Amino acid sequence: MDVDVVIVGAGPNGLLLAGELSLLGLRPVVLERLRERTGEPRANGVIGRVVQALDLRGLHDRLSGGEPLGEPGRYFQFGGLALDLGALADNPLHGLRIPQPRLEALLEEWAVERGARLRRGHEFAGFAQDDDGVRVDVRGPDGAAYAVTAAYLVGCDGASSSVRKLAGIGFPGTTDEHFVSRSGDVVLPGSAFADELGSIDAPGQRMFPFAFNRTERGAFVYAPFQPGVHRVAVHEWRQPPADPDAPLTPAELRAAVTRVTGVDLPMTRPDSDAPLAWRRRVGMHSRQAERYRDGRVLLAGDAAHVHSSVGAPGLNLGMQDVFNLGWKLAATVLGRAPRDLLDTYERERHPAGARVLMQTRAQTALLAPGAEVTALRELFGELLDEPAVLRRLAELLAGADLRYEMPGGGDHPLVGGWMPELHLGTPAARSRLAAAQHRARPVLLDFAGGVALAGWQDRVDLVRADAEDPPADAILVRPDGYVAWAGSDTGELTRALRTWFGEPADAG
Ligand SMILES: Cc1cc2nc3c(=O)[nH]c(=O)nc-3n(C[C@H](O)[C@H](O)[C@H](O)COP(=O)(O)OP(=O)(O)OC[C@H]3O[C@@H](n4cnc5c(N)ncnc54)[C@H](O)[C@@H]3O)c2cc1C
């Protein structure tokens, strides 16, 4: 094999996967058809469980410019309905503010430091697989075709994934052709704002920055992401067919804002060299790959699922796919994985994707115009007074309501869920549990001194630790941060180690 794994696509998910695999000793190569990063403004940050997952690799501090993982944010929204999460004990909705181009630049740096290779200007053109490996056809920057052989191929090549299409994996779901969204980075005059918070008065309602401001004609969102520049987005339903390729002009954006809000907002293009977010998106797609694996070919990120961006779930979903896949794929390539380990990737992550499609469709429905929707929002707003409802929504948005089946893991309440952060006192020093997981290896935490790792020392880190009031005598945490086993039954522990990390070394 020329390399262990070919990853197609140097978006956030391809780059994160390249870093994870390199960290675990593999030689991945990333093929990216663009010669250089475009700097296209997309996400402005990352929310949800993945913020904590990034922290497990020490990436949070790197991406935040040195800020340690802090408290989750207090306010969020569901379908434009305000959620005040301040009253929730253990609010799971962490956030990390970072523009996507910077996220990609830092992930690339991290992956390359760990040995991953990135070939820009190299386009994936096809593949053939057999029992031994995959031959990947590539068009190089000069147009010349060549092939790379690898044990596995992973499509992180975005929503229109060629890997998915050539693997013959269906992409069922829905497309609302009559939904049109227009967005642009603009300069708004100071006179547009009603107060120092930047709110805007519209007929019958006050509009707020960062919020989905719904009217009976659509939804309007605006926020100052750069000094003096607002990103303005306006979403309309039941629209006549629009040309998705014609360039969006300030006049068209302004007219759409006026239609939806009833306010004529003068807007001009900023005088900036930075790439600006000017786009018209025609159609709302909600689709999911019917399978995430076809033999030696896997899908992750937008290649596996597309959905409305309401609630900003894309990176949370895609990057957690990668954290789930990375260690399983590495163990498989290194020949240490239990037989069906790689199949658990789809088993665990397909339901997570389906849930995001469900909640983003629900949010989109709550934003749509119409008297029935207005009534539904009123009812939903009343339900939000219930702390249990608020918690349920916060967990849904964070992807924190997810529990994986852990065969052989026993029935301790921690099993299958996300490992809560602990402050450990080891003989050496006090440290955070997250620090023990920087190497993307499983960790067996032993609080009672009663477990041993015979046969798995090469793959699992044993941490003998003290913690104030530990939640179990011992806990086995997978590299993606989920608890595979907890308790004191060492027979159960052995089963869990075999299930996830293979046969012990001395068993031959
Ligand atoms: C306007 C907008 C706003 C968004 N806002 C948010 C937000 O606030 N929060 C959030 O979490 N998410 C947001 N998202 C979603 C987020 O941007 C995506 O989920 C994320 O980019 C997906 O990453 P990816 O690596 O899977 O795919 P992509 O980022 O799409 O990367 C795929 C890469 O594959 C390359 N590629 C494709 N085909 C080939 C080929 N044949 N050969 C070689 N290379 C190829 C492409 O050039 C590209 O670089 C937003 C998206 C948009 C469009």
UniProtKB/TrEMBL annotation:
<dbReference type="GO" id="GO:0004497">
    <property type="term" value="F:monooxygenase activity"/>
</dbReference>
<protein>
    <submittedName>
        <fullName>FAD-dependent monooxygenase</fullName>
    </submittedName>
</protein>
<keyword id="KW-0274">FAD</keyword>
<keyword id="KW-0503">Monooxygenase</keyword>
<keyword id="KW-0560">Oxidoreductase</keyword>
<dbReference type="Pfam" id="PF21274">
    <property type="entry name" value="Rng_hyd_C"/>
</dbReference>
<dbReference type="InterPro" id="IPR050641">
    <property type="entry name" value="RIFMO-like"/>
</dbReference>
<keyword id="KW-0285">Flavoprotein</keyword>
<dbReference type="InterPro" id="IPR002938">
    <property type="entry name" value="FAD-bd"/>
</dbReference>
<dbReference type="InterPro" id="IPR036188">
    <property type="entry name" value="FAD/NAD-bd_sf"/>
</dbReference>
<feature type="domain" description="FAD-binding">
    <location>
        <begin position="2"/>
        <end position="359"/>
    </location>
</feature>
<dbReference type="Pfam" id="PF01494">
    <property type="entry name" value="FAD_binding_3"/>
</dbReference>
